[in-house]
Structure formats: C-alpha cells, structure tokens
Prior knowledge:
Blueprint: H1 2-21, H2 25-47, H3 50-59, H4 66-77, H5 89-119, H6 122-141, H7 144-154, H8 167-171, H9 174-203
Amino acid sequence: MAQRLSKKNVGSLWFMVxxxxxxxxxxxxxxxxxxxxxxxxxxxxxxxxxxxxxxxxELSNAHPQAQEYGQKTLDYLTYKTNFIQGFQQExxxxxxxxxxxxxxxxxxxxxxVLVYTFRINRVIxxxxxxxxxxxxxxxxxxxxxxxxTKFHEMLAFDQxxxxxxxxxxxxxxxxxxxxxxxxxxxxxxxxxxxxLILVYGGKN
Length: 204
C-alpha cells in the first residue's frame, strides 16, 4: 500500500513539475525549435562575412583567386548584382538555387526572431539550449559527407555535385565546407552555453 502511494505521489509530483515548467504547448514547441533557431542565427552571423570567407579560404588551401571569386559570390548571394562571371553555366544555376534557398531560410529566421522576441523565457532558453547541445553531440557522430549530402537533399537542390576542375569546387572545396560547418556548430554551442549561464545566473 505504501509502495503504491509512493508511486502515485511521485507521478503526481512529476506532472506538477512538467505543468510548471511548460506553461503551454507553445513553450514546448519553441523548445524543440530552439536548436534550429541557434543554427540559423550562427549561420546568419557568418554566411555574409567576407573576412570569415577569406579565413576559410586560407585554412582550406583554396583556389589562388579564391578571395576574388568569394567576393563575387557574396555580391551575388546578397543581391548586390544579378550577374556572376567566371563560372560555368551549371555553377551559375546552382548559385541561383543557393540564393533562393538562402532567401527562404532568412525569412524563416526572421519569423523565428519575431516569435522568440515575444515568447522567449528562461524555460525555453534553458531546455532549448540543453536540447541543442544534445543534438550537436549526435551530429558529431555522423560523417561530414553524410550530413553534407542530406543537407542538399533536404533542401531539394537540383544539382550540387560538379567535376573537380570547376572553379566552384576549387574555391568552395570540401575542406572549406567542413570548416564552415564546424564554425557554425561551434557558434551554436557557445550560444547555448551563454544561454545556460544567463539562466543559471538569473536564478541566483
């Protein structure tokens, strides 16, 4: 009898805690989406930074004119120009797709910014940050080639693989994207840790 009451009490306590932690299903949804928000925020801070690109070009031993091609690419992706020279037609078509997908991701990011601006609270930051760190640990187990392929498949790119002699491959080589991925993940980890520190500090 005592054992049954004990289990009942534990169960009641558990649901009480959950009820206090997650005030609504909206909070739970925003916790689940929080890792995506942090990744998009990290990508947004890095993707349009020319100096960051130049750093990655040096690290990845890219094409000798990588900085020049990188600037042309950034100008095209940020709508400073609608023309891009020095690339094959297939590469230009891919750039157009990339710009289109980036626009949609930026819209999604801005929507999330608005939502979190009005709905953010300590519970969302705390559990969302923990969830993000757990997901990053899981991603770290998977090979980069697998993640790179799934990323392109998920965004439904028509063509994204090109011969090794194409300028795009020599400028934005595999090592470039590996470093790019690591920096975005690293930025996301830092944001999660900062969030946890702020929440924990706020309790004290």
